[in-house]
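We emphasize that the prediction below concerns an isolated chain of 281 residues; any contacts that depend on oligomerization or on bound cofactors are therefore not represented. The input was used exactly as deposited, without trimming of termini.
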Amino acid sequence: MRSVPRLRSLLFAPAVRPDFVERLGERGADAVVIDCEDATPANAKEEGRANAARLAPILAASGVAVTVRVNAQPTEWFADDVREGLSDSLAAVVVPKVESIAGLDAVDAALSASGLGDLGVIAGLETALGVADSRKLLAHPRVVAGYFGAEDFIADMGGVRTASNDEVATARSMVALAGRLAGVPVLDQVVTDFRDLDRFSSECASARSLGYSGKLCIHPGQVAVANDGFVPSAAEVARARALLAAYEEASARGVAAIDFEGQMVDEPLAAQARRVIALAD
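Result of the prediction step, given as a token string:
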């Protein structure tokens, strides 16, 4: 399966807006998405997939990690999206509203039939069933990454979306845990108010705390915030190095727990410090 780049930021653009798509490579995102699903209306699906097939190789040739989001597997557009909208230049294909192993098997078969047998899937977990079964879905051999879609999830639940994120706290944590157990990176929900960069930054921090590797971006202005938000700060790295040095020195003397700046430090906290240093490196 093709490897995907580190995914701190995954930037979407509508497939029906070639002017937006053509500029995706300038935005600094770790990977980009030409979106044939939600951002492409039903009466323009053919146009969207044609744009994706034409523009993805151009972007990829410039060094951009390009993906295409097809329509969900059960929909009437999925088969044509795979046959006509994808190309061998892609880093992965984004499949929304994944809910079953049978559905992923159907995606696998469709990709193989189109000569894309090594193209990995970024699986969208954005329905009640998809989130509930996220552990086994993310463990599917075709899946190389996943994301949590809060807006569709709450629509499916019949709930109310709020800025507090209280209503998605459990689902958001479940997807992060599923990604860890499956061994694939997962990306956090969109912030639809793309002008509110304070909220976006705050959500990056909470997502990183949960174990997410990156965030979905719907506006170029969100990209730099996501890229910074999923990398430890210089202060974090310096503290992690100092903590680890003190802990390792104590361990060499046979001491398993130390007082570091008023905090009890043992192996779990040392492991967290190693993770901070690894992310920075």
